[in-house]
Amino acid sequence: MGVSGEEDAPQARHDAAGRPTRRRVFKTLGIAAGGLAVGAGTVAAAPREKSGPGPNMSVPVAAAWTPAHGHVDVTWSVDTAEKLIALTFDDGPMPKWTPMVLDVLDAERVPATFFMVGERLVRNARLVHGRMDRHEIGNHTWAHADLAELDHQGARAQIHRAHAAIKAVTGKEARHLRPPFGRMAGATLSAAGELGYDITIWSIKMLEKTYEHNPPALVDYILTNTRPGHIVLAHDTGRDDRLVALRNLVPMIRGLRAKGFEFVTVSELMAASRPAGTRQDPA
Prior knowledge:
Layout: H1 22-29, E1 37-38, E2 43-44, E3 74-75, E4 84-90, H2 98-108, E5 113-116, H3 118-123, H4 125-128, E6 136-139, H5 152-170, E7 176-177, H6 186-195, E8 198-200, E9 204-205, H7 215-225, E10 231-235, H8 243-246, H9 249-258, E11 262-264, H10 266-271
Parallel strand pairs: 3-8, 4-5, 4-10, 4-11, 5-6, 7-8, 9-10
Antiparallel strand pairs: 1-2
């Protein structure tokens, strides 16, 4: 599987102009491609598909079912008055460019959360050996799979296999799942619940493509738009345009610190969340 990132959603569903493909439109409408019969002024639709244990099913069995997590949190950001932010990196570890990121974080003494792809971790374990003490590791599936397309068993296999790899290589227990591309369905939730995971998305990401040829503007974008409780998305591998973010991590880190922000892991950020009942309404 090629290296992909969250903004690189699967292309098969859209044409070159970004419109949904004909096949996708039919699927979305619940109409089979061959199920339209045009007669004397009538249009007959194909029968609706029966419900089954597909990607959209949030309960995988008909019988009583009790997951490890009876409640799965999906978090974009954390409601906190403290100036805490979590820096996260997806898709590694890979020689392109995980060591560079770890070197910067070591030099700046910044903790981060790495959402790792299981097969890449197994293949590149040497890149992170002895270097993850201050960092947290999250689950980004075994093979960067689109969980929104998988049923419960498929999603469970992707998450569980990556979990086992993370524990075997690093000795750490991952508890946060980030679905590749930020895409998920009901089966993603049921699989996460069965395996004891919560789901972590993001609230601000590096817009590498937008600022590929204007690095100072990307730094300014991050410094201007980051808020307390934000989860920042970056990548430690992928297309070359991502280097515009990685090569400017130092001014971002120092600029945010100058504004009073402290970097923490995702779990530490969650622990700083306001108790229920104290949340403020959006401005």
